[in-house]
Specification:
single chain; alpha/beta; Maf protein; six-stranded mixed beta sheet; 7 helices; binds inosine 5'-triphosphate
């Protein structure tokens, strides 16, 4: 089957295409920027955005909103991850975490799906626990150089290369999506 993925982020589009391909789902990237409200949860952000995208993009389509939640910073940057990355970036996060011994964090991904014309929007989410590195390591996009996922052998997402897609927050959320669509990601 074929499904549209509406995102202005080419890295996300590429990752989703690779992950879903192994479930026999072909992704068509719709490079469209949509409004995102300020809210405390990714689910709220996604629900609002889905309303806006519905009617502008043909079904079936999905959107995805991701965020990194740092325990010692009470979940910051969370739903504000995009703004925080654009402003203080990885160096800013590392500075905020200087001298902080609790480095636990979580990357979370929420998908909003409209499976067919006139169908109700569905929202699903999944996350990966991990920790914030002492310094950026590896070459990758966004927070990849500073996030060390559990189960990744102590490497940052950026150091894992393609292996990121086997364990990432996005992978886990896309597994829920595939399941909903009656497919199974095998790789
Ligand atoms: P769209 O909303 O158009 O899909 P976006 O770049 O705004 O694109 P998000 O709101 O989902 O995407 O992500 C917020 C930011 O969090 C994003 O800009 C990155 O800086 C960071 N981010 C999200 N997923 C990531 C990942 O897998 N690895 C590293 N950083 C990530």
């Amino acid at each position: 089957m074929r499904i549209r993925f509406v995102t202005s982020n080419e890295h996300k589009a590429e990752e989703a295409a690779e992950i879903l391909r192994s479930g026999g789902i072909e992704v068509e990237w719709v490079d469209l920027e949509y409004p995102e409200i300020q809210a405390d949860s990714l689910e709220e952000v996604v629900s609002f955005s889905l309303e806006w995208v519905s009617g502008r993009v043909e079904t079936p389509f999905f959107i995805e909103d991701a965020g990194m939640f740092i325990d010692a910073l009470s979940g910051f940057p969370g739903p504000y991850s995009s703004y925080v990355f654009r402003t203080i970036g990885n160096q800013g996060i590392i500075r905020l975490m200087e001298g902080v011994s609790n480095r636990r964090a979580k990357f979370y991904s929420v998908i909003g799906l409209v499976a067919g014309r006139g169908m109700k929007a569905e929202v699903m989410g999944a996350g990966v626990p991990g920790r914030i590195a002492e310094r950026p390591r590896g070459i990758g996009w966004g927070f990849d150089p500073i996030f060390i996922p559990e189960g990744g052998g102590g490497l940052t997402y950026a150091e894992m290369g393609r292996r990121k897609n086997e364990i990432s927050h996005r992978r886990r959320a896309l597994e829920l999506l595939a399941d909903r669509l009656g497919a199974k990601i095998v790789k």
